[in-house]
Amino acid sequence: MRLHFTKMEGLGNDYVYVNCFKEKVEHPSELAVRVSDRHFGIGSDGLILIKPSEVADFKMDMYNADGTQSEMCGNGIRCVGKYVYDYGLTDKTSVSIETLAGIKYLEFTFGDEEKNGRKTVELVRVNMGAPILAPEDVPVDLPDAGDIVQDYPIMVAGKEYRITCVSMGNPHCVSFVDDVDNFPLEEVGPLFENNPIFPRRVNAEFVELVSPTYAKMRVWERGTGETLACGTGTCATAVACILNGKTEDEVTVKLLGGELIIRWDRDANIIYMTGPAKVVFDGEIEV
């Protein structure tokens, strides 16, 4: 059987997308491993399935490159938004997407390119909901940390890191470093991901402050490794920056794949993420 797919990317965080209104996927974890292989597969950070939903306009199921399922992906959900509009699944300029982290709300900004006689989506603004800070809900197992894990010292590979833990529907651990470009992420990232204080593993973000409105970040994603961008991780990074008094409530975060704009409306307790989404190519694969 041949499976139709679309490869898309948000700031280089690339996934294989399958329209499950038309296609049938029986073993998504196995398929995720296969398509993600950059030598023998399509090459991606994972697999995202676009499905019907009983509670929202659409449903997004996300699988990492190792086949594990994740609750949410910020770059991935922007691409889902672009897909459902550009490929004619909806005429709405704002949509709701069901995820394992709850329903997310998307608004589209259109560019100059056209597909099927109408403008295509260039930028997507996502209402990411409220950041989750309670340690048991992140989750992170640090009984003496208090109500939130903020600027908390831990030792990793003989070095002290001061961590702030945030869930955006999936767990994140943010640390501030002096030089993120030369940070030994491949060595330190797995030690964070698999640290026993994180019962569901963790996505680890390492952040260098540039100004009160600008930061640089690299990310080690659980189940995948270093990626060019992580939308939920960028949201968690902005929350950590603001909680620790390092930036203003709106901050541009530079990742390896580009920039995202994150704003924390603290009155409403909502995180807004704005960034691009792009189609790489359409194709078929034998399954």
Automatic annotation (TrEMBL):
InterPro entries: DAP_epimerase_AS, DAP_epimerase_DapF
Sequence intervals crossing the membrane: none
Pathway where it operates: Amino-acid biosynthesis; L-lysine biosynthesis via DAP pathway; DL-2,6-diaminopimelate from LL-2,6-diaminopimelate: step 1/1
Catalytic activity: (2S,6S)-2,6-diaminopimelate = meso-2,6-diaminopimelate
GO CC annotations, alphabetized: cytosol
Subcellular location: Cytoplasm
Binding residues annotated for substrate, in chain numbering: N13, N64, G74, N75, N170, N203, E221, R222, G231, T232
Annotated catalytic residues: C73, C73 (proton donor), C230 (proton acceptor)
Keywords assigned: Amino-acid biosynthesis, Cytoplasm, Isomerase, Lysine biosynthesis
An annotated Gene Ontology molecular function: diaminopimelate epimerase activity
Origin superkingdom: Bacteria
GO biological process: lysine biosynthetic process via diaminopimelate
UniProt site (Could be important to modulate the pK values of the two catalytic cysteine residues): H172, E221
Listed Pfam families: DAP_epimerase
UniProt record similarity statement: Belongs to the diaminopimelate epimerase family.
Function recorded in the entry: Catalyzes the stereoinversion of LL-2,6-diaminopimelate (L,L-DAP) to meso-diaminopimelate (meso-DAP), a precursor of L-lysine and an essential component of the bacterial peptidoglycan.
Binding partners and assembly: Homodimer.
HAMAP family, per the entry: DAP_epimerase (MF_00197)
Protein name: Diaminopimelate epimerase
Organism per entry: Wujia chipingensis
